[in-house]
Request: fold
Amino acid sequence: MHGLINRAVQSFVCATYGYSCWLRVTEAAELGFVEFEAMLVYDDDMTQRVLDYLCADLRRPRSEILEDLGTYLVSHPNMEGLRRLLRFGGVTYVEFLHSLDDLSDRARLAVSDLHLPALELVEVSPAEYQLFCHPGLAGYSSVMVGILRAMADDYGALVMLSHADQEQEVDVISVVLIESAFAEGRQFELGGRKS
Amino acid sequence: MMGTDDLAALLETLCPMFVLVGADGQISRVGPTLQKLRPDQSMAGRQFPDVFELVRPRDVISLSSLLASAGAKLHLKLRETPRTALKGLIAPLPDGKGAVINLSFGISILDAVRDYALTSADFSGTDLAIELLYLVEAKSAAMEASRSLNLRLQGAMLAAEEQAVTDMLTGLKNRRAMDGTIGQLITGHLPFALMHLDLDFFKSVNDQFGHAAGDYVLQQAARIMVEETRNGDTVARIGGDEFVIIFPGLSDEDILSAIATRLIDRLQAPILFEGNTCRISASIGIALSSQLKPPTAAEILNAADLALYEAKRTGRSRHCLYSVVAGRQNGNAEHGVASQL
Reply:
């Protein structure tokens, strides 16, 4: 598993549940270290153990925790850089949804050995979409639900999200757009990059 | 032929940074994004050279000569600050009715989006500007992560080197390890002997046959020293061709002399490296911890050093005991330097 993903989990746990929680989890998972390096690649098994022990420690189901991770990736000030990268996807929430088809390619363009599962958006109607999350990364669709929810807030859109169903290992997320300009949304300037 | 309005409408959709100029060089229309760069002053109605400075090609003055460079890349700058650099391409309109000049930011895009607060809507759908901006940010973030990893690895490497006790080339202990061993023996009040061994003629091997030969000779010399000492002895390389051997519990100068003799004998044997015969030898100074009161690491090393110097001075390929040097200093020259030649 790419270090960036492990690092995201670490950052999420430390910011949300505290460093002591992270220490307990890494010790229980017998990693042999405490800090993941963003630019190294680790055994997939390590990530699974960390998530298993995190669920046990928090006594919460994995899908819930991963959804919170997705929300964290967009909404926490630590992750401003990532939010900005996602906002490059489009001017409106719907444009952003359409840009998800390119997300794995965009990720690979930035970090060549970061392989994210393919996403495919299907427009059911202008107010209803289905996002197909292809296999390759267990729990990815749960993280995506959190990301989609937080990005809706970011754009000021009001949406209803649900894990619709699963078709042959492909997770389907249903996105119902209730109002595209429900709230102000957060600012995004192309030149607003911190330098 | 379509009218100016139709043409301008078409251009606004396709290239929002166009300039439409008449045959007299006057700007008739500009794209909305271009106008956004000078929000307080309409570009339309002004002379093209009054708004834009042509950086390249240099020798072009009039619109007609500019039209002659149709298809070539133009480099321009806005006349007033911020003097944003622009790239351009000129295409003449039919019947000598002027020209369309399409502009873009080129590499100045990063500053431009900040200076003019441009948004995605300011670029045409086919423009790669947004992708470029995305890539710059994504790559910067990835680079930052790599850089911080490099810094940490460098720190870890320095720390590891700091803690290393082995000489990489020979596999012997290094000076730090030697200091540690001497310190432990002194603290534990354990008597020991210390040999300071210096290879003779090593430099000429390096000069004659190169560093690879020199390295090989050092490795062979190290092997000999390990073979001629006991498991509990410490053999350390403390400089280029300088070695220290520590013998815990040994204080018999006859035995030490015999070991020194054997070491020099073996080190004098020719060493073959890639068809060349390398010849070295060694000089050795020997001191006992019991000869110094109180024994300190610096004093014992210094004593062995004095003996080594004496061995060198009297003709190399010899060993010398500190007791002899010290004895002669005290006017008691009962021993000479043991010769091995």
User: Anything to note?
Assistant: The domain at 175-329 of chain B is CATH 3.30.70.270 (Alpha-Beta Plaits). Chain B has three domains: 4-123, 128-163, 175-329. The CA atoms of residues 60 and 66 of chain B lie 6 Å apart.
